[in-house]
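Good morning C.,

I know you're traveling, so I'll keep this short. The sequence:
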Amino acid sequence: MPSSFHVESADGYERLMGRWSRTLAPMLIDFAGLADGDRVLDVGCGTGSLTFTLAQRPGLREIAAIDYSPVFVEAAKARNSDPRIAIQQADACALPFEDNRFDRALSLLVLHFVPEAGKAVAEMTRVVRPGGVVAAAVWDHYGGMSGMRMMWDTVVMLDENALPMRRKYCFQPMMRPGEMKQTFIAQGLADVEETSLLIRMDYLSFDDYWAPIAAGEGPLGKYVGGLEPAKRAAVDAAVRAAYEAGEPDGPRSFASVAWACRGRVA
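The tokens, ready to paste straight into the viewer:
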């Protein structure tokens, strides 16, 4: 099952989201828990934020990572120098591993881009041994992403064609309170817990904030890239005004919240 995330380049993704997923990764790892000797699977590794954070734990025996995007897989492989890590292109809804292979399966900022996210959770559960842990985190786009919501809410004031895209952005799979927990329970996981994780996204300037979107990265970037020139100029100016909020251009900080869920394989 393909991801709905729009990929232009690995470097663009790093500026858009990779730098923030690296900040979130240790929090998901702490929530999921690790033990020496664990075999861990990273489902939807992207450019490797979670994979290479896991690799900082010398006691792990094996780290497997998959992503649907060949662009991300190539970029992550190019970064890798750890013999414990194996990275491959694969579908989160059809993992290429035998049953009970891993001690833990983690997924960072991925399930909300999988149209049939329940299948991905089922596959993560299948490949983890009894007693092992499945854990995931997704952004709370509706209520927890102030910086990104600012973009969408600004854009829809200029273009009503963006309304259905904003709705899709705000209510992707697994984003409603309790939705991941219900999905984990439905897939047979036990002792399921859901919580929220908070980071801050700190930008140096409007260009630092807007450049990856302007270059076409991600869902909003894909939309912006398709605008005719006059409307594109209006969108650029309006988002800049929202970012600056009447003050000179410069650093801004936005609170960003992710839902996180974990469960034990029965």
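Safe travels,
E.
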